[in-house]
Amino acid sequence: MADIPIVMVVAVARNGVIGREGDMPWKLSTDLKRFKALTMGKPLLLGRKTFESFGSRPLPGRPHVIISRTASYDLPGVQTVRDLSSGLELAKRLAADSGADEICIIGGGEIYRQAFDQADLLHVTHVEADIAGDTYFPQIDPSLFEKVEESAVPAGEKDNYPTRYAVYRRRTAS
């Protein structure tokens, strides 16, 4: 199986917040459209709490690999694993079988933290606000990740805040 890139897709406030009380602390319709376009057809790797935050139903057009320590966690339309390494292995196999060119890690905080050292690419929506929350994204170290793309995104009529969309690529050892 070819090496399939591991991509993180996340929206993060200036102060690092990505969630509050099991949900996203903002409404960003513009960003959700980009999220759908970025992830369509690609395996999604996510934690149980993140999956439950969007109604415990798989998002259409994307295979879901849920990481849960609960052995009995079994829902239709998703595959469940007990840990990150099993999840990455399964997601890469699903990507190879379907011809997807990458796998997408979509949260939550603990899954991002565990997988951060293995990520090849970060698709980050920087929410232009400091927001109260209880779940955080790891700090992006510029010595490890190079910003390769960035664009300002004004708040649309269904967005709480303006954002900056950026793509970061892991630097290769020289």
Show the helix and strand layout:
Layout: E1 6-13, E2 17-19, H1 29-39, E3 44-47, H2 48-53, E4 64-67, E5 78-81, H3 84-98, E6 103-105, H4 109-115, E7 121-127, E8 135-136, E9 145-153, E10 163-170
Function: Key enzyme in folate metabolism. Catalyzes an essential reaction for de novo glycine and purine synthesis, and for DNA precursor synthesis.
InterPro entries: DHFR, DHFR-like_dom_sf, DHFR_CS, DHFR_dom
Catalytic activity: (6S)-5,6,7,8-tetrahydrofolate + NADP(+) = 7,8-dihydrofolate + NADPH + H(+)
Let me know the number of strands: 10
Mean pLDDT: 94
Note the total helix count: 4
Low-confidence stretches: none
Major sheet strand order: 5-4-3-6-1-7-10-9
Would you tell me the structural class of the helices and strands? alpha/beta
The percentage helix is 10-25%
Main beta sheet: strand number and arrangement? 8 strands, mixed
The span between the termini is: 26 Å
Global geometry? globular
